[in-house]
Amino acid sequence: MKFRYAAALALLDWYLMTAPPPGGQPSSVQSVKADIKAPLSKWTIVGIFPSKKACEAQRGTNTKQRCFASEDPHFRDNNPPP
């Protein structure tokens, strides 16, 4: 791998995000289900990690959570920089 590509990968952050409850229920309602097809703008950031491996380790087997790279087009389009 060339150095410039490795350097670019090192600058990525990984976001652990939780899907919202179905039907726009208030977050205080504990639901077993989650709307994993909701747009990322509706998801909640649980944590930020330096690598995909660290993000996935924190996620474990939780099916309501996903890891997204900061450069992922789906994440970027729904979360423009300030």
Would you kindly provide a written description of the structure presented here, covering whatever features stand out?
The model is unreliable at 3-9 (pLDDT under 50). The protein has one domain (3-25, 33-78). The chain has 82 residues and is of the alpha+beta class. It has helices at residues 3-10, 52-59, 73-78; strands spanning 14-18, 44-49, 65-69. Strands 2-1-3 form a 3-stranded antiparallel sheet, covered by helices on one side. The protein has 3 helices and 3 strands.
Spell out the key features of this protein:
disordered N terminus; alpha+beta; 27% helix; 82 residues; 3 strands
In short:
By secondary structure, the chain is an alpha+beta fold.
What is the element layout, followed by pairings?
Layout (H helix, E strand, L loop, with lengths): L2 H8 L3 E5 L25 E6 L2 H8 L5 E5 L3 H6 L4
Antiparallel strand pairs: 1-2, 1-3
The number of distinct helices, counting runs of at least 4 residues, comes to 3
What class, by secondary structure content?
A: alpha+beta
Q: Helix and strand string, N-terminal first? A: HEEHEH
How can the largest sheet be summarized?
3 strands, antiparallel
* Helix proportion range: 25-40%
**Tally of DSSP β-strands:** 3
Shape: flat
**Overall domain count:** 1
Radius of gyration: 14 Å
Mean pLDDT: 77
Ends distance? 32 Å
Uncertain regions: pLDDT < 50 for 5+ in a row? 3-9
Strand content: 15-25%
Strand order of the largest sheet: 2-1-3
